[in-house]
Write a structure and sequence with these properties.
By secondary structure, this protein is mainly alpha-helical. About 80% of the residues lie in helices and about 0% in strands. The chain has one domain. The protein is globular, with a radius of gyration of 19 Å.
């Protein structure tokens, strides 16, 4: 069951990536990021209010937000700092790079998660899963060669390093999620609500310091329908992902790989919508990534 929940998370993440590209393209990154996270937080506020005044009703639909001690708030705040840093780097990179380059690099996330799952949680992959893992990494490297045809030199482009840093932080957060859900017994909706609250707070401070004092940057910001859509889609994806993690048999290395199937939506549909270059050539490493995910999933 947890694998199917992971696939649902991947579906909503793929749609989230398309909306995110639309929201950030030619736009100011920091207010867009704050708007997306803030929209996700507003989506969860009714659950928090309902949990306070109608606890039985929220319990009956498994959306009750539990009260947690301050120590757990500290653990969630750490996750907020990790993901805020990851998103700032990722959104900046997405603004300056094609989605068909950014998304495949993000697909290397399973590399870090795979290693962390073995070292931290002692998860043991099979031989075919190892083959699938290296096939994903090799396919991502192929994208770097294609990227050079679009004027993107991976060794000299700072946005490439930004997206690699974002990928590493995102993978670290994924490993941390398993600790929060399985070791600390946080429910998905409780983790989501407080995570969005603290992340909105952190990003709000960043926007107030860096963006608000600059009149030119304020004028450059354009509100788009895709900004709240990103927040709603992300929280929907996270809910299915956290529900999958609640299963004691769930392996974070496999869930991380399953989530990479979002790349199909981002590269194929996104490439058509945003009219990016070399779409046919990008289908070759895309196929390699999908085969790698399949080897990890079904062995």
């Amino acid at each position: 069951m947890w694998m199917y929940l992971g696939l649902l998370a991947a579906l909503f993440l793929g749609l989230h990536n398309l909306c995110k590209k639309h929201a950030v393209r030619g736009n100011e990154v920091f207010p867009v990021l704050l708007g997306t996270i803030g929209s996700g937080f507003l989506l969860l506020v009714p659950l928090f209010i309902g949990s306070a005044f109608f606890p039985e009703s929220l319990h009956s639909i498994n959306l009750y937000i539990t009260e947690i001690p301050w120590q757990l708030h500290g653990f969630i705040f750490i996750k907020s700092l990790i993901m805020a840093s990851s998103w700032v780097l990722a959104y900046q990179a997405l603004k300056h790079l094609p989605i068909t380059i950014v998304t495949p690099i993000r697909s290397a996330g399973p590399f870090f998660t795979f290693i962390g799952a073995i070292l931290i949680y002692q998860e043991q992959p099979t031989l075919l899963q190892w083959i699938g893992f290296f096939l994903i990494i090799f396919s991502v490297l192929l994208y770097s060669r294609i990227g050079k045809k679009e004027g993107i030199h991976f060794k000299r482009n700072k946005w490439i390093f930004a997206i690699i840093g974002a990928t590493f932080l995102g993978a670290s957060s994924g490993l941390y999620d398993k600790f929060l859900i399985q070791r600390l017994d946080l429910t998905p909706q409780t983790l989501q609500f407080w995570f969005c609250f603290y992340t909105t707070l952190v990003l709000g401070i960043i926007v107030a310091i860096i963006w608000l004092p600059n009149p030119e940057k304020r004028k450059a910001f354009t509100f788009r329908w895709s900004i709240p859509a990103v927040g709603v889609l992300l929280q929907t994806a996270d809910y299915f992902y956290f529900k999958a993690l609640q299963d004691p048999e769930a392996l974070i290395m496999l869930l991380s790989a399953i989530k990479r199937s979002q790349i199909l939506i981002a590269v194929v549909i996104g490439g058509l919508i945003f009219k990016e270059q070399n779409k046919r050539q990008k289908l070759i490493p895309l196929t390699g990534i999908m085969i790698g995910v399949g080897l990890i999933l079904y062995t």
